Here is the input.
Amino acid sequence: MGSPHPGPPRQTDRLPSDAALDTDQLRQLIRDGRVSDVPRHAGRVIDTSADPYEVARAHLMKLGALIILGRTGECPAVVDRANAALQRQPDPALLGEFHALAGFVAHIEGSLDRCVMHLVSAGRVLQTVERLDITAADAWCDLAIAYSWVGFHEQATDAARRGLRIAEDSGLSVIEHISTEIGVRSAVSYDHRGDSERCRAELADLLHDTSRVLANLGGLAALRPDQLPYMEYAAARLAAMGHADAALPVTRSGGRSIRIPDAMELSELSAVCRAIAERRTDEALRRLDRVTVDPRTLGAAEVHRLRALAHAAASDHVAADAADRAAFRVASADLERVRALFVDGIAVRIDHEELRRTVGRYAGEALSDPLTGLPNRRHLEQRVEAISRTREQAVLGIIDLDDFKAVNTVHGHLTGDLVLQRVAGALIRVLRRRDFLARYGGDEFVVILPSATRAEAEIIGARLADAVRGEDWESLAPGTPVSASIGWAELHESTDLIDAFRKADREMFGAKKSAKISGG
Here is the structure.
C-alpha cells in the first residue's frame, strides 16, 4: 500500500486538487501522509486510465488508503473491484499486494479464517515474482504488517525481511521499508504471555538496530511518520518496565507527525508509560481508564498489561496480579481462536478431498462449475435425461441459500464465492456415494437421489440443511449466517422434467416462507 514517508516537499505536495496523478504519485501521497487525498485521485485513475496495470494498482492504492483511514465500510466493495481488475491484469506482485490488503479487510470484519487464507495466498504468489521492484517490496512489507496485525509475529518478521532484502538488492530506499511496528508488536506479545525478559531484549534491540541504520540517513527525521510513534513507544515501554537505559534519546528530531488512529493511540499509551516510569501511577491509571485503543495496534492485552505495570509501580500487587491475569486471559483467547482455525482448516481440507474425489467421477471441465468443481447445469441436464431414458425412479431437490445477497452486500463477492465453495463441501459430506449434486447457478444447487423415496429424501434434506447451517459461518462471513431451503419433486417415467423443477421450486419457496414465519 506504500506507507507514509517524511521528507522535503515533493512534486505531489504542489499538485492542484484536480491534478491527474499516476499510481507512483498516489504511492507518494501515502508516503507523504496525505492519505485522505488518495481515494479521490485513485478514482480518477480508475475512470480515465487505459492501462490495465495502472487501473489495478490504483484500486489497490485506494484500498490501502481506506484501511489506513479506518473507512472499513467501503472496503469490501473495493476488494471486489480490485479483484475484477486483477483478472484482467494478473501481475504477481499486484496479486500479492491484493491478498495482503484483502487479509487486512477480512480481519477487520472479524474473519480470521478468510484473513489467513488471503495472507497465505499472498506469500505464495509473491514467491513467484520475478521482477523484484518497488511493487514487490511494498507487497512483502504490507504482508508483514498484516501478519503482525493478526498476531502471527514469526510470519510477519519473515515477510518484513523479504521486503527489506528486495529493497536492498534493487537499490531502493531501505528506510521506506523499515517497519518498526512489527518489532514492537512482537516484543509486547511476549510480555503479554509472561516473558518480560524477551520483551525487554527485543525492544532494546529494535531501538539500537533502527537507530544505527538511521544514523547515516538523517536520524529519526528520516523515519516514516507512521513508524516513528512505534519507536517512541518502544522507548517509553522499556522505561515503564524499569529498563536501565530508560532515557534512550528518542525524540522527533524534525520528523513529521501523522494523524492516523494508531499514531494517536500510541501517543497516549507512550504518555501512560512515561507516567509509570516516573511513578505518577494515579495519572497513568486515569489515562488508561480514558483511552480507547484498537486491539490491532499493540494487541488486545496491552492496556491490561500497562494497568498491571502501573499497579505494580504503586506497590498494589493484588491489583497488579488481577490486571496481569486479565492480560494473559485476553492473549490466550487469541491462541484459542488459532486452535479453532486449525481444526476448522482440517475439516475443510477433508471436505475438499471428498469433493475432489466426487468430482473426479464426473466428466471434464466442460461439464463442471469452475467455482465449486461440481457438475454444472449442462451436466445436470445430461444426468436427468439419462434417468428419463432408463426410467429410473429418483427424487430431485432444489437447494437455495437463504438471504445469500446479504453475504455479497456486506462482505463482497469474493467472500460470497468462498461461501459457495464451503456449501458445496458441506453438501457433498452428507450425500450418499450414488447421489448427484450440481451447481445450477448463483446460490442454487440441485441434487438427484437415485432410487430414493420421498420419505428418504426428506430425511436427507434435513441432514443437508443441518450441514449448511452447522458450518462456522461466523469465522468466514461474520454477522451473515448462512442457511438453505430445500424443495423436492419425484422423478419417474411419467414425470415431465419442467413440471418437476417447478414443483420442487414451489416447495423450496414454501420452505423459505415457513422458515421466515417461524423465525428459523
In short: The chain has three domains: 1-8+19-177, 181-360, 364-518.
